[in-house]
Amino acid sequence: MQDLLFYFFAVLTLIFGFLVVVNPFTRSPVTSAMFLVLSIISMSGLFVMLHAFFLAAIQILVYSGAVIVLFLFVIMLMDLKEEARSTFQGIRLTFSLLLAGLFATVLIGVVLTSGLGAEPVVLTLEGSTAVLGERLFNAYIIPFEILSVLLLVGMVGVVLLSKKNLN
Amino acid sequence: MVGLEHYLVVSILLFSIGALGVMLRRNLLVIYMGLEMMLNAANLALVAFSRFNDNINGQILVFFIITVAAAEVAVGLALIVALYRRRRTTDVRELTDLKL
Question: Best of A11, A18, A41, A50 to disrupt the B interface by mutation (most B CBs within 10 Å)?
């Protein structure tokens, strides 16, 4: 059952990810953003399979909630003309596919020959909110605070960048 | 039995698809989505390593990555909007100011 669920979520993640890039229905970025939402939600299913429950929730809240809404706002802010259909042809397509394929082949080869999953391990790790929160607010309290400052800096920067004239 | 290498293969394939999007597409926004997918693939690999090595620190790192990525998306999209205001386009073929 668990294995079946893994393959289900993995295939969904990859198919929707592929549809973000290829997008055979329209060339509109809105459809790409919607497929990205589906890919991210399937991926949080993979996180649940890995018992990272808190991260699965955060993934849905932050990515498919906040980030995609930002994307959609920006897309609707500008009226984009559709990308021409013929952009996928020629030497660019060949080289892009070659490069991505080579990268994937080499890395998968390394993973499969390294014997990473050879020895059976006892899986006891639970990524529950309590465990992560305990670790975050003890060992990692300084990076956590720095992160909040970073978010503030990002917010001020965005407000400044979106002003009409930057004087 | 699904093991570490299964998750790593999924992560590698997702990263390659994201990289393919960055190389193929010409719309800045879709390129940015490809970048987000590559980031997500790295997150998946980290969570898988964390689970199979019985080490919670990997998940803490993913938590930090997600937060920084949210800030990064906000700043990047603001830059794209500023660029669009100036040039009225998000097509990377027309943004060639750095070309010799």
Answer: A50
> Is A46 within the bounds of a domain?
yes
- Candidates A91, A96, A99, A83; CA nearest to B93 is A83
Which residues touch B55 (CB under 8 Å, ≥6 apart)? A125, B49
Instruction: Report the gap between the CA of A77 and the closest CA in chain B (Å).
Output: 8
CA distances from residue B62 to A56, A116, B33 in whole angstroms, order as listed: 11, 21, 18
**What total number of domains does chain A contain?**
2
**Model ipTM value:** 0.91
Q: Which residues of B touch A143 (CB under 8 A)?
A: 64
- In a domain? residue A118: no
Chain A, nearest residue to B62 by Cα: A55
**Is residue B71 domain-resident?**
yes
Q: Show the domain range for A148.
A: 128-167
Cβ B69 vs Cβ B39: under 8 Å = yes
pLDDT in tens, chain B (100 residues): 788 888 999 999 999 999 999 998 888 889 999 999 999 999 999 999 998 888 889 999 999 999 999 999 999 999 998 888 888 888 888 888 888 7
Burial pattern A137-154, b for ≥16 Cβ within 10 A else e, equals eeebeeeeeebeebeeeb
